[in-house]
Amino acid sequence: MLPVEIKPGIFWIGVNDRITQLFEGLWDISKEGVSYNSYLIRDEKTAVIDLNKVIMTGEYMDKLQSLTGLEKLDYVIINHMEPDHTGVLRTLLKIAPKVQLIGTAKTVGMLQDFYGITENLRAVADGETLTLGKHTLRFFVTPFLHWPETMMTYEESEQMLFSCDAFGSYGVLNGTIFDDAGVPLDWYEEQALRYYVNIIAIFSKPVNNALAKLASLPVRIIAPSHGLIWHNNPGRMIELYKKWASLTTEPADPAVTLLYTSMYGNTEAMMEAVAQGIVDAGVPLTIYNVSQTPISYILPSLYTRQGVMVGAPTYEGGLFPDMKTALEMAEGKHIYNRKTAIFGSHAWLGGGEKEFLSLVEVLKWESLGSLIFKGAPGYEELVQGRAFGLEFARKIKA
Ligand SMILES: Cc1cc2nc3c(=O)[nH]c(=O)nc-3n(C[C@H](O)[C@H](O)[C@H](O)COP(=O)(O)O)c2cc1C
Ligand SMILES: [Fe+2]
Ligand SMILES: [Fe+2]
Q1: Res. 56: pLDDT tops 90
Q2: Residue owning the nearest CA to atom 28 of ligand 1
Q3: DSSP SS3 for 163
Q4: What is the number of domains present in the chain?
Q5: Which of 247, 225, 260 is nearest to 51 (CA)?
Q6: Which domain holds residue 281?
Q7: Which of 147, 243, 270, 365 is least surrounded by CB atoms within 10 angstroms?
Q8: Each residue of 208-234: pLDDT tens digit?
Q9: Does one domain contain both 110 and 27?
Q10: Does residue 85 contact residue 162 with C-beta atoms inside 8 Å?
Q11: How far is the CA of 265 from the centre of ligand 2 (A)?
Q12: Residues of the chain with pLDDT > 70: what percent?
């Protein structure tokens, strides 16, 4: 995409990444892609806010150069040191060695560690300002969103918040950078939730601290470092962040995530009956095969729903490995205090249930029951499975 002038003198100069398959080497974005948003303010002084990932260096430099002479750049504002926003720095400094780099005190240390940079660094304190001419930037230190050095930058004349990863989403920008009518906002919100749960959720307390710090600030535009620029309805994102951050302490939605996996279809046959029972209770249900669905997509459902029904066979005396991994990822993302139950097939001594119970104990998930059977489930067992699903879902609703 060509640069976009968001407000007089303030430009989006981001890049779409349709190449990377795994964001942070872990989270599947093979279908959605991601954008690295970067911004240029042209005034008596010029400043770039957030940069770009190294793989996009050529396109990024061309875009920046189309608007300003690189050697004339005065400031680079580094809201966050993660390489998806700083990767092009080494190349940029070869062209513009005098540019001043601005970040928090922790950013300054990290710039040495990552890029060996020791000169032209300026650490700013919370609330400090930088005047570019007509535009004044104010810096808000917002630690652990989602690294220790993170901050946000606020442009006062346009009331524009450059929030970096906060309020960001997966998903490339398709022809427009804005949350305007006609843009699939539901899809971007889904991608923002997935981004939140994958990357930000364990820092929900710092999110609340940041929201409190920014509460009295008039914000007309939120310009994050990934995904849409929220100029139409910035309040919507702030409301969503309040809700998502609250889910680490408040009960989640009365709905069920059904996670299952199956080698030969025995557990899967039971899954179909259990699912029927859950829907019989009128409770919303989402089903994921943990061996086929990347964990990035499963975690948002676990994060927002109170019930987790688990279906997995025994494998070498324990729980089927992919299910174990899924539950361990939930633990890694601090998705605690859910209600759960297990069903699954085995052939001799079993052992899946036992390992499941020890895994969910760590998660502080309350186990409401088990339905374990040998080999293929018979008709009577399937009827039992439907009742098992119904009973579980009723407890989730209650
Ligand atoms: C590699 C492998 C390891 C297994 N380990 C155990 C085990 O330790 N204990 C047990 O009771 N059954 C074990 N089983 C048997 C399965 O749990 C059983 O076949 C079950 O019906 C599979 O359910 P599914 O069709 O949903 O995959 C194992 C099966 C395989 C293929
Ligand atoms: Fe980040
Ligand atoms: Fe990022």
Answers
A1: no
A2: 315
A3: strand
A4: 2
A5: 225
A6: 254-397
A7: 243
A8: 999 999 999 999 999 999 999 999 999
A9: yes
A10: no
A11: 40
A12: 100
20 and 82 assigned to the same domain:
yes
Q: How far is the CA of 171 from the centre of ligand 3 (A)?
A: 12
In the block, which residue shows the tokens 């599947």? 28
- The pLDDT mean for the chain works out to 97
Check pocket membership of 315 for ligand 1, CB cut-off 6 A: yes
The residue whose CA is least distant from atom 30 of ligand 1 is: 315
Q: Which ligand is nearest to the CA of 321?
A: 1
Among 246, 280, 299, the domain-final residue is 246
Closest residue by CA, ligand 1 atom 17 = 346
Determine if the peptide bond prior to 231 is cis (ω within 30°): no
Atom of ligand 1 nearest to the CA of 376: 21
Residue nearest to atom 16 of ligand 1 (CA): 346
The three-point CA angle 282-287-293 to 5° equals: 160
CB pairs under 8 A, 24+ apart, for 278-281? 278/309, 278/389, 278/390, 278/392, 278/393, 279/393, 280/386, 280/389, 280/390, 280/393, 281/389, 281/390, 281/393, 281/394, 281/396, 281/397
Task: Mark which of 212, 246, 280 sits at the end of a domain.
Answer: 246
The predicted-structure confidence for 99-146, as pLDDT tens digits, reads as follows: 999 999 999 999 999 999 999 999 999 999 999 999 999 999 999 999
Q: Atom of ligand 1 at shortest distance to CA of 267?
A: 26
Domain holding 321: CATH number? 3.40.50.360
Inform me whether the pLDDT recorded for 47 exceeds 90: yes
Ligand 3 (single-atom ion) residues, CB below 5 Å: 84, 165
What's the gap in Å between 316 CA and the centre of ligand 2? 39
The number of the ligand nearest the C-alpha atom of 144 reads: 2
Residue with tokens 């004349």: 157
Least distant ligand from the CA of 315: 1
- For residue 215, what is the domain's CATH number? 3.60.15.10
What's the rounded Cα separation, in Å, for the pair 176 and 129? 31
pLDDT at 381 over 90: yes
Atom of ligand 1 nearest to the CA of 264: 25
| Residue 155 and residue 217 in one domain | yes
Residue among 25, 28, 26 at smallest CA distance from 288 = 28
